[in-house]
Structures are given as structure tokens and as C-alpha cells.
Sequence to fold (419 residues):
Amino acid sequence: MRVSRCNLPGPEPASAVMEKYISGVYEGGVECFSAPEEWRAFCDDVDTVTYAKGSEGELFPVHTGAPIGGEEDDGGAYYRLQVHYENPHGGSALDSSGIRIFYTSRLRQYDLGLVTVGHRRTPFLTVPPRQARFVISGHCSPECTRAGLDDGGVNVTSAFLHAHLRAKAIILRQIRDGLELEPIVMDRHYDFNYQLYRTLPGERRILPGDELRVDCEYDTTRDETFIAGGLSTDQEMCHAFMFVYPKPALVDCRSQPELGSYLAAMGVRQGAGGVSGPLLQKLRLPFVEDATVGDRLSKDDANVIGVRDSSVFKEIWINETRMDLHEHMNRQLDWSNMSLVEGVEAIWRDGPQYSFCGAKSRIPIGQGQQIVEPTKYNVWKQSMPRTCGHTGEAGSGYASAPAIFLLILIQCLYTFVVE
Fold:
């Protein structure tokens, strides 16, 4: 469930546009993809509250808060509640889900902002079948943080990692001047049924020029066809949401593989006469740098095409072979060949990326949309302090039960031998 504040870019008050949707035919809500254009245009990019399966709610630090209402909203603000259902068999049920928000009239010192980093929601987030481990990365470029953050940067108070059923690990990395710092959040045992905001044991500072990277590791050993990214739980995502202060202009800093390198990794040529088809036209690909739609960043591919499985690639044709991309990926490529898999993974993960950098209402920041090369960096190496509470997980101070048992067993054996 997502509660999103509606942000109107124009000078007219929000009430002039949104008040008509409070009652009448819209009172009971509508299906997401048939919602009025204003809902999708103005209420879809900045979440105030997010709930996912397993969450126990979010408590902000006492010196921070999310502002509600205010003069900028002509005395009021409009919010949209969006509930996502996974109902593959078309069953019927009565749902009474909701979100309870607690607020105070005492203004807190800092306004919180929510920044989304990671991979765009797109079928070009692609995971091959029959892989025990395949890593996809989403990048927030140094150019974007340089343009979207003030000189002093922002402090991260908590972070929420999100992917779907095949994800088994997610890491939110921070890179500064070619050197990786300690990961902001790391979950080596990601579970879709246990998603929550993780309050950091100590706030982390992100400075202008830092690069952020979300690495998502997937397991598709039970899948016979490749998995495409998208909105459904049967598809995949790779995101991290961070609550930060002071509230920055930046709200969206994500990427997806550049089309030419994405195709070249699989032996497909993009250039003149390389590929064609209606999907490329719908998604305005190949990508043109700094291209916007009505002075806004392009929507996520998945938001343009709706819920579609990997068969969406049947709408991309390889002109040289007259084969569609879906058939090429499933029949022409041997995903048991680890040299092929590792080469594809490396290019999709670390090759050229389409970078998207935006403020609320998809207003571009800096160059907005551009092609970037991810930073080559020195990997952070974790020290191993001599404490029983260390588990090898960044930001964690608790050992698991098996780790504690092993330490006790070693200590007992050591005592027995010495004595």
C-alpha cells in the first residue's frame, strides 16, 4: 500500500484540480490503470507512507517529520492511497486494509524527504532462467546527486529494500571518489514476506557527487523462461527507498541498461536495421539524451505498458534473422553456458546505463535523462572486529543463533583442551 502526496507543478491551488475527485463516482476508488490522468500525473512519484508485507510500520526520529498541509497547498493537501493486489485467479474478496497515520501539531526541526534509487520498473530488468545467482544493479549517478542535493548533502535515517519473489539478497551501496563506503543497508537473506523500513543504527551522510548503487541478487533455478521486470509479483523489481533530511529536491534517481549494450550482450545488433517493433515505439527507444515528455521525465516502462510478462519481447523484432527477441532469448541462447551468463550479467550490471534524475512530478533535475557509465570503484572490505555480536552484515549488531552456538562451542572446546 502506498500513500502519495499529490504535487501540482502549476500556480493554481491543488483544490482547483483535485477537489472534484473527492466524491461521486471516484469516492470508492478506481482501478490503477483507469485512474484519471491527474492522479497518475501528480500523485505517483513521492510516497509519504509505504506498507509492504511483513512491515510493522515506520517511526520517524524525534527531530524529523513528514509535513502535512501548509500554505503551499492553499490550506490543504491531497493524498492518494494505492493498494496493490495479486489476484492471478480472479477471485473476489472484501478488503478493509488501510493505514493509520499519527501526527503532531508541534513542528519538528527537519522535514523528511523520500528518495528512490535502484533500477527502473521495466522489462529490461531481465533475469535469465535456471540461475542460482544472478545480480542486477540500479545506479544513481554522481551527476544526479551533484545536481539534486545541496552542498551539505542529506542524512539517511532509514531505508526500505524492495524486490519480488525471486530476490534473495539486496545491498544499497555508497561510492565516493572511486571508493566504496560501508553499505548503507545490506540484506543477505531477503524475504518478500518480511519487508520493512530499517532504521539505521547511525545516520549516514550522502554528499553531492556520491554514487548510489542497488545490487539485487536473484535465484531462478525453478524457472524455465527468463523473468522480466514489471509491476506483478511474478515479475521483478530492484529498489531502495530512503528517508532523508534536510528534504532535498531529488526524489527519483534510477537507471536501466542502455538499449544497445543490453542487446549486444546477447549478440543482437541495435544499429540501423538491427531491431524494430511496436514495443520500441511505445517506450520511445532508442533513448535520446535529455529527452522529456511535456518537460517531464519519461514514465517507467512498466507504467506505460501495464502488467505484461516476458512475452512483451515478442514485440521487438531482430531484423537480420526475422526472429523476435523473446524467441531469441529462450531458444537461441544457452543459459547453462556460464561464460555467456557471466558476460551478460557484467554488461547489464556495469555497462552503459540510461540515467533518470528527477524532482517531484517527474520534473527533471540537471540533465534529467542521460547515458552514463557506472563508476569503477574499489570494493569496501569489511573488518572483522573481535566481538561476539558481529555477523558480517552492515548495520547489524546482533549475531544469529547458529553463530552464537558456534562461538560457545569453540570456546568450550578451547577450554577443554587447555585445561
Q: What stands out?
A: Confidence is low (pLDDT under 50) at residues 387-419. The CA atoms of residues 29 and 187 lie 35 Å apart. The radius of gyration is 23 Å.
